[in-house]
């Protein structure tokens, strides 16, 4: 069974989260979606990552259709959603461009939509999806407070926030932001370089990692960099008798002391099981740094 | 009448400031300068932005000549000045290169000069003009304290400071820095990108914006970027029935929640009136982001 | 006699430190090494900078061989060492790549090795040599605490840490980090640009400067930049009647208000004496900025 990670004293999530970004592409019936959700819960993956905009504003409802079939499962899971991005979409004809909206009005509307679509009375965690150059952090703080008091959202976090943005919003809140969901993978060290992971460690905040498998870039290995990293992953996979290089990529994140929560994006159960098994893999520091070095393209300084 | 912005509990400035950077170029008699000042006050622009070095060290005196003609106006305005840059100048033959000086001796000399030239007994606000790699923040703090106690300067701020520099100096002071005067415009997002505006929002500090009209780059529209932004400004101007794209550029700043104070640089009263009228313009988020996107050159992430 | 710099209330180091990075290359007998150490102490240079890895893991022992000849000198000096880097080396055949290790196990082993090699019962100062992307700051903090309680290390600092890394580790400690040893020279303004020196000033931490003479780049003057800076150094050397441009480079660091401690790297006593004499040189701000401008390659903004 998967470990859990405490984000606050009374809120924990599973060591791996399942993302439902591409749920609309999986082409499953409501009953099949429910079976997938139940399998996840059986594996110990109880944290389900959504956003208002996923699947062009459709994925939350697809999940909700399944949950409705067995509503008592709600208490066995943590539902995470996001808001703040407005997409150009047939479902939102009033949007002439893609833009951000972190106004009180939009956050509250978006949360209400998410609750309706997900067939739930509360979110366990709401994230601001992107840092908004027009954000009024006082207004966001007031909105979070109201949503908490109304019982609609229990915990709050951010996504893709730089340390300065995390500090700005945190400084206006009476409670801590519990996560920062950012891209981290063997192909993407950006959040190591810009201080984001360090800020998380300073604040004892566990980051969630999107695209933990590099969005497929490693498997295709079209660039010299991807090929170089892949070679190292293959070597370590062999040394550890692992099932796949995907496992090594998960293990690379799971072995980091920041308690990074990888978000599994696949809808195939055998892929998810592979990820769960990766939670058992221990990398030596030297192995971790072989991957780091292959990502850098040169030895450490 | 223009709104005011509280920088501290007992110090407010007008929603727009007037800059006197180019006062020497306006070629006005002392009486004409006085009339311009009186017109500004009538419009509600009471905050006048100076620096020791403007006009090759001459502008403060040109302003002072006018103020002397009607000294009782002093109490109706806020005088802002700056120090810390040393120019190569016939008026400062001892300077062999352009450099910075934030020593106690130089700050105090420069303030005394500003007071003499402006014909005033105090500055409402003194800014360190540029971050100085040779700054001793303890010495600057001690100097600020002394100037405050002597009644020569009532409030202090900085200009063109990065967050790290703002924090360094703030940490040595017993009172808050009340502003950071930086370049912000539809052509210049630097202070969005480097955390400066976020640091202001975190600290509840209203930034002042220099070159709010891009230093004329938009009007000339010589670059592809400038032309692209200008097209969007023209479109929004039309949608809002505004008088000019300058108004849209001011409104873009004034609609930001950080309470950005644009510094009007023109010496022509009809231009200033245009700016004042811009304070009434409300942009939708979508309009604000159309300008943001045109400045980025691509949709938001 | 050289000044001292207080790093904490009860811990001071000399205004210049001596580095033993290249001790293995100096080709000295133990007795000659001892004589060099005694000469340094006579000059007031009492702070000796080591690292586990210097000379491919050999320099600490070479120093210890000399100290053993006159063990009573231990109380007249401050011994600084570092850990956290693992080199590919015949002396560490288990290292397949160069990597970092800031685990409790490695830090403690490395300190024990340093104590044995240096023939001492305590280090005055231990530095983490490089920021480690796999660092667990809580584990490092726990390790520092234990080493302090055991009396093996009296003070702690870091090397080559960015502000975010400095803050991360500091936040976990009950005592302050006393220095950040970074590269600073007339050829290298990186730590001015990235906020590191400002963070030191904010925290009243004196940085130590490695490669204060640019690692020889100025003397060779192979690049246009190096030649440009060298010309300015020569000019100022002449104006001040100094002995060498090396002295001007030291003075440029010593005149900075952050109380930068240059680390002298030469094993030749006349070079060290030159450095000590540089501590008497006062640069004007204008001279300091002539060097700064030559390093920038353009006037200040």
From TrEMBL, chains A, B, C:
CDD domains: AKR_BsYcsN_EcYdhF-like. One of its GO terms (cellular component) is cytosol. It comes from the Bacteria. GO terms for molecular function: oxidoreductase activity. Keywords: NADP, Oxidoreductase. The keyword S-adenosyl-L-methionine does not apply. The keyword ATP-binding does not apply. Residues 16-291 form the NADP-dependent oxidoreductase domain. InterPro entries: AKR_Detox_Biosynth (IPR050523), NAD(P)_OxRdtase_dom_sf (IPR036812), NADP_OxRdtase_dom (IPR023210). Belongs to the aldo/keto reductase family. Aldo/keto reductase 2 subfamily. This is Oxidoreductase.
């Amino acid at each position: 069974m998967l470990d859990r990670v405490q984000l606050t004293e009374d809120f924990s999530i599973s060591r791996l989260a399942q993302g439902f970004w591409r749920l609309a592409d999986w082409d499953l019936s409501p009953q099949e979606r429910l079976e997938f959700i139940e399998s996840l819960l059986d594996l110990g993956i109880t944290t389900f990552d959504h956003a208002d905009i996923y699947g062009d504003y459709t994925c939350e409802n697809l999940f909700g259709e399944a949950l409705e079939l067995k509503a008592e499962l709600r208490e066995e899971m943590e539902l995470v959603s996001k808001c703040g991005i407005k997409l150009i979409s047939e479902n939102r004809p009033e949007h002439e461009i893609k833009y951000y909206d972190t106004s009180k009005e939009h956050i509250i509307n978006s949360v209400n939509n998410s609750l309706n679509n997900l067939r739930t009375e509360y979110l366990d965690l709401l994230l601001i999806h992107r840092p908004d150059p027009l954000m009024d952090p006082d207004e966001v703080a007031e909105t979070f407070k109201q949503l908490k008091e109304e019982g609609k959202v229990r915990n709050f976090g951010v996504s893709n926030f730089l340390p300065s943005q995390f500090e700005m919003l945190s400084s206006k809140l009476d409670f801590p932001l519990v996560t920062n969901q950012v891209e981290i993978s063997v192909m993407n060290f950006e959040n190591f370089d810009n201080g984001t992971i360090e800020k998380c460690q300073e604040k004892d905040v566990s980051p969630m990692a999107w695209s933990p498998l590099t969005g497929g870039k490693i498997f295709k290995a079209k660039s010299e960099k991807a090929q170089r990293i892949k070679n190292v992953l293959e070597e370590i996979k062999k040394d550890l008798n692992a099932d796949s290089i995907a496992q090594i990529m998960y293990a690379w994140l799971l072995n980091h002391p920041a308690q990074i929560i990888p978000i599994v994006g696949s809808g195939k159960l055998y892929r998810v099981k592979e990820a769960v098994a990766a939670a058992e893999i221990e990398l030596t520091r030297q192995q971790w740094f072989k991957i780091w070095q292959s990502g850098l393209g040169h030895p450490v300084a």
